[in-house]
């Protein structure tokens, strides 16, 4: 944070909640962030986003907005565009980055040409699935524009969905008209967080996610005891370095700001060739079970300091706060 903002507390609006599938997680993230900011001496206005959010932010007149929303419209560029038009500084990534990163197909188009390996696949109409499989089983189906593994399904030979998939079988094909179909990558689930510092982005390490049954879906992410986090991951040094390298590169190529988290699958039987990036999350969770705060702790960065670093980056990117501009004439 610049010298002016270090001398006096900021007024920070924490934007959370909303109406996305991840509302409850966003409320937990936002509550933790707000508590940490208040503990650091900042003035905090908590805003549970509704359709009047622009008027509520304008009335609050914050120096900066901490965007603790997850999913649409807080993570897809909509809120970012609104805040850009209002001329208010905000945390995390810009409009353009948010639009690309939440769209899994656009993310591939940005990252794969830069040498970042991702699974192949294609967009399919859900109605196609009721006629034939889009690729040999096993394969993964996921919404194109959702976060937190919302609506992800793994279709295997013994899946209880029929062959082809029955329109009556529970799954994302009942919720979304289009889905991304990808080959299933066998192996281990891992993730790497990146945080922006004054001297540039820094990868915080690698966490392995061990799930007894199923995969790292929404329920496993946010239900205590459903997933074991091994941090740092017990993996070969070259794989750990590659995870950090790919996560940093994705952060830079996509233009992420503040923090990001890149998820991987690794088929250890294939060595380095078995490591694939699944996605990059531009607004990772900040709940007690969230991976970015956990990795930050292992890197010697406490939760309060992590929140401050994210705010610092917002001030650095967007410039002086309104209060500071007024004070400087």
Tell me what the structure shows.
- The protein is an alpha+beta fold and 329 residues long.
- It is built from 11 helices and 14 strands.
- The strands form 3 sheets. Strands 9, 10, 11, 12, 13 and 14 form a 6-stranded antiparallel sheet that branches.
- Helix 2 crosses helix 10 (303-318).
- The radius of gyration is 20 Å and the shape is globular.
Terminal-residue CA separation:
20 Å
Largest sheet: 6 strands, antiparallel
Shape field: globular
Round the mean pLDDT to the nearest integer and report it: 90
SSE order, one letter for each helix or strand:
HEHEHEHEHHEEEEEEEHEHEEHHH
How much of the sequence lies in strands comes to 15-25%
* Count of runs of 4 or more consecutive helical residues: 11
Low-confidence stretches: 1-6, 215-224
Radius of gyration: 20 Å
Helix content: 25-40%
Structural class: alpha+beta
Extended strand count: 14
What oligomeric arrangement do these chains adopt? single chain
Outline the fold blueprint.
Blueprint lengths: L2 H5 L3 E6 L6 H17 L3 E6 L4 H8 L3 E4 L10 H9 L2 E2 L4 H8 L1 H8 L10 E4 L13 E4 L10 E3 L22 E6 L4 E10 L2 E4 L3 E5 L6 H5 L4 E4 L6 H18 L4 E8 L8 E7 L9 H8 L4 H16 L3 H6 L2
Parallel strand pairs: 1-2, 1-3, 3-4
Antiparallel strand pairs: 5-8, 6-7, 6-8, 9-10, 9-11, 9-13, 11-12, 13-14
Helix pairs in contact: 2-10
